[in-house]
Design a protein that fits this description.
Number of strands of chain A: 21
Structural class of chain A: alpha+beta
Oligomer: heterodimer
Helix content of chain A: 40-55%
Radius of gyration of chain A: 35 Å
Number of helices of chain A: 15
Number of strands of chain B: 6
Structural class of chain B: alpha+beta
Strand order of the largest sheet of chain A: 9-10-2-20
Strand content of chain B: 5-15%
Shape of chain B: elongated
Shape of chain A: elongated
Radius of gyration of chain B: 25 Å
Distance between the termini of chain A: 20 Å
Number of helices of chain B: 11
Largest interface: A-B, 84 and 83 residues
Strand order of the largest sheet of chain B: 3-4-2-5
Chain lengths: 535, 324
């Protein structure tokens, strides 16, 4: 046990040195590291609780996704049946999770066949999953019910999250924030983390707005009051104005002339005549063509610009607008005009997102935490070293060296993993300093016992190591299990604690099995002790 | 080696300590049972001081820019906002105040609105050091995940110990350590310390460390069981505990030193975490592994055949460690 070959000794020292060296980049500034080779650039990232920043967790509004899907199905049903000239007793309506339509008895079979074509097979991980997007049932009495299946909703939510991540990315970049991180989390969530951002109000405004923009004609076939009292025409609905428009209702055609998807650009600016803040829009070629055509055909009519189910402007078409340019004014402050321009350039979110968790730490608190963490680490380390040396003398010095290397290796591994260091993470390191000496204590106490049974120092040391190592392994694995569970079930900064605790356990076992043994072996060879001071 | 010998070293536990720990099981078992029941009663009737992680709501830490914060005035300002229960407390320094706003009715968006209201009311006299908003969805999940995590950790460790030792050891360690967790939760209820995500981390760490301690003793017991086939169980346990006692104490001193450094210099934010750890690891963990985990093996039927001789004297003479 005490004989360690040169090769082994070299390997042990090299391993420890290499891991410690990986910690080096943390002592240099970001700009210095940038000039190093890429493999040497890995370093620890400070968590948001230490460097300050915003953590915002968003959730896709499942009801919104479901509602949109049902509306789309309703539209498709209407269109398919109309195109196939199938007679209806009642137009399609949304009931709970389904769309119901009553088909005339004579056309029922043909209608059913057409509607069944609407149901698409869903793709699973390996090709078709055998599930379909719609359940089409013949309920009887000519009633056909189309139910949106749960897998179809799940599939849609997945797509919505993917698209949203991309769009939020574009929006956040436009705000000029540094290193934002936007990730999918679980099935229906998105985590946005922005280091250094102490006031996330604008960020939340920007990512919490859907920004679905549509241009629609005002329906003049009946007045809004009539529509509100009775039933609006099937191809139109009532949309309310924004607060600036006094929540005035408008009866609008459901048909969309152009939408935000057909924009190539949106810029904030000021109206040259009125000096009001405005947003200048530029349509792509198909959008420009449609807009030109509709405005040519409807001179004198009013149209509405609808943003997220709210009319923000309802100008009258005075002349055809062929160039594919339009402007919205009379609604904004310079700031909101700028925000809307950002939103429109990045595109609309496919569904509503809700902020369900927000954690913001100011830079001041982060800096304080770092200072306090450092202070606690130094004091903790010093106290442990003093105590160990007082208890074990030279062997206490060995233990202290092992603990020092241990901490170096923890930082090295954290750097290698590009891991995030949080305040609980620092606690984990300080605790590791306290517990890392345990392996040395186990070994030393065992050596003392062996000495007491009458062994010579060398055989006592040998036996002490052999016996203690099994115990060290057993006792550390239980703590490691706890750390692992914490890692998988914990969230946020607490995970950082699990990471440092877990890595600390691994490095502790490593140093106990190799480095401490090596140091003691060298000492024994050099000093040839006839008596052991620790016993 | 005169050089090393001349330095007087700390000797915390004398080498020939032969303390009869097993005798104390007649006191420690009933005492632990009573304390556990008290802890459970506290949990159910006094409750835990759940933080926003688990019940939702808003937590804002502000620092007054103009000298010590006027708590009474702030309380009056915030109390008039109609946000329900608003709690304020000084946080570490006279300038720092921690504001807690109870979860608002009206779903996720209402929480955001509450933050805006508070920020408008306090204006720019304060610096916002920390703003945390946890909605009802997330808080519910965090609580569920934490409970599952804790249960899973206990289960995983149980399985591991079962593989490494006999099942009695695994069960004994589990009883001992669930006892630790119960007492720690009782302590948290009694002191009304904040119970948040970091408390779960503390509980899991306490579980890990006090098991660590238990495993060290069990390892020794197993070794002794193999070595001394005839020794009575209480004697064997006593020898095992006594021979690991020095290690237990030294390790706990170093862990305590580290925790003490954290308690004194780590700042107010981690205060409750560290206080819980000190209670759990240092006070309960040590006691449990010596006074509960070891003697419980007697009742779980480890070495039942040895139970016949409960007179320690003669047997232990015979068993003085003397190896070839």
């Amino acid at each position: 046990m005490l004989y360690i070959s040169k090769w082994k000794a070299t390997a042990i020292l090299l391993t420890a040195a290499i891991f410690c060296l990986f910690a080096v980049p943390n002592f240099f500034s970001e700009s210095t590291i940038k000039r190093w080779p890429e493999w040497a650039q890995r370093h620890i990232v400070l968590g948001l609780d230490l460097q300050g920043g915003s953590h915002i967790l968003l959730e896709v509004d499942v009801n919104d996704v479901r509602r949109q899907r049902l509306l789309a199905v309703q539209d498709e049903v209407r269109k398919v049946l109309r195109d196939a000239r199938i007679g209806l007793t009642r137009a399609p309506v949304i009931r709970g999770n389904s769309v119901e339509v009553i088909i005339r008895e004579s056309d029922l079979q043909q209608g059913l066949a057409k509607l069944r074509e609407l149901s698409q097979p869903l793709s699973g991980f390996l090709g078709s999953s055998g599930q379909r997007s719609l359940d089409v049932e013949n309920v009887g009495g000519g009633v056909v019910r189309l139910t949106v299946t749960d897998p179809a909703i799940l599939e849609r939510i997945r797509q919505v999250v993917d698209q949203s991540v991309e769009i939020i990315g574009k929006r956040v970049n436009q705000l000029g924030l540094v290193e934002p991180s936007i990730q999918r989390q679980g099935n229906d969530r998105i985590l946005v983390q922005v280091p250094g951002l102490g006031d996330p109000k604008q960020l939340i405004d920007i990512i919490g707005t859907t920004a679905k923009l549509t241009f629609r004609l005002v329906d003049t076939s009946m007045s809004v009051e009539q529509a509100l009292q009775g039933r609006p025409p099937p191809e139109s609905d009532v949309v309310y104005g924004s607060k600036a428009e006094n929540k005035q209702p408008y009866l609008l055609e459901k048909r969309v002339i152009v939408s935000g998807e057909e924009l190539t650009d949106a810029r904030p600016g000021f109206d040259q005549r009125t000096n009001e803040p405005m947003v200048q829009l530029t349509f792509n070629s198909s959008g420009a063509r449609k807009f030109g055509q509709v405005t040519t055909e409807n001179v004198g009519r009013q149209f509405a610009i609808v943003l997220d189910d709210e009319v923000i402007s309802a100008p009258t078409i005075r002349e055809p607008i062929p160039g594919g340019r339009a402007q919205i004014s009379g609604y904004f402050t310079p700031e909101t005009a700028n925000n809307l321009a950002i939103l429109l350039r990045a595109g609309a979110l496919p569904a509503k997102l809700t902020v369900i968790e927000q954690r913001v730490v100011g830079a001041g608190l982060g800096q304080d935490s770092i200072e306090k963490g450092k202070l606690a680490s130094y004091f903790g380390g010093a106290l442990v070293v003093i105590f160990m040396v007082a208890t074990y003398g030279l062997f206490g010095v060995f233990a202290s060296i092992a603990v020092g290397v241990n901490v170096g290796m923890i930082f090295g591994v954290l750097s290698l993993l590009n891991a995030t260091l949080t305040l609980p993470g620092i606690i984990g390191i300080v605790l590791t300093i306290g517990i890392a000496v345990d392996s040395n204590v186990l070994i030393y106490e065992r050596i003392r016992e062996e000495v007491r049974t009458g062994r010579t120092p060398i055989t006592a040391i040998d036996a002490g190591f052999t016996r203690a190592l099994a115990t060290i392994l057993d006792s550390n694995i239980t703590t490691f299990i706890a750390a692992a569970v914490l890692f998988f079930f914990g969230s946020g900064p607490v995970r950082g604690f699990a990471v440092t605790l877990g890595i600390g356990i691994v490095t502790t076992v490593f140093t106990a099995f190799t480095l401490t043994r090596l140091i003691v072996a060298w000492w024994v060879r050099w000093a040839r002790p006839r008596q052991l001071a620790i016993s | 080696m005169r050089l090393y010998h001349s330095i007087p070293l700390l000797r915390i536990v004398p080498d020939d300590t032969k303390f009869d720990f097993m005798r104390f099981r007649r006191i420690s078992f009933p005492a632990s049972a009573v304390l556990s029941i008290v802890a459970i009663l506290l949990f159910f009737f006094h409750g835990l001081n759940f933080g926003i992680d688990f019940v939702g709501g808003t937590l804002i830490e502000v620092q007054s820019k103009t000298g010590p914060a006027d708590l009474a005035k702030m309380r009056a300002t915030l109390g008039g906002l109609g946000l329900g229960d608003v709690q304020l407390q000084e946080f570490g320094r006279p300038t720092d105040v921690l504001i807690r706003v109870a979860q608002q009715p009206g779903g996720e968006q209402a929480q955001q609105a509450a933050v805006t209201k508070v920020q408008q009311a306090l204006g720019s006299d304060v610096e916002y050091r920390r703003v945390e908003v946890v909605g009802p969805r997330v808080s519910g999940e965090l609580l569920a995940m934490s409970t599952i995590g804790l249960g899973l950790a206990i289960f995983a460790i149980l399985i591991y110990l079962w593989f490494r030792f006999e099942w009695q050891f695994s069960l004994g360690a589990m009883i001992a350590n669930v006892h630790d967790l119960v007492l720690t939760i009782g302590y948290m209820s009694l002191t009304q310390i904040d119970f948040d995500l970091s408390s779960i981390a503390a509980l899991l760490t306490i579980l890990g460390y006090s098991l660590n301690d238990t495993v060290v003793i069990y390892d020794r017991i197993r070794e002794m069981l193999r070595r001394y086939k005839r020794m009575s169980m209480p004697d064997l346990l006593n020898i095992s505990v006594n021979s690991t006692l020095s290690r237990s104490i030294i390790t706990h001193v170093t862990v305590t030193l580290a925790l003490l450094a954290l308690l004194l210099f780590g700042g107010h934010a981690i205060h409750s975490f560290v206080a819980t750890m000190i209670f759990g690891v240092v006070l309960v963990g040590t006691y449990t592994s010596v006074f509960i985990a070891a003697p419980i093996l007697i009742y779980l039927g480890v070495g039942t055949s040895r139970m016949a001789t409960d007179e320690p004297a003669e047997q232990s003479e015979q068993a003085t460690p003397r190896r070839p």
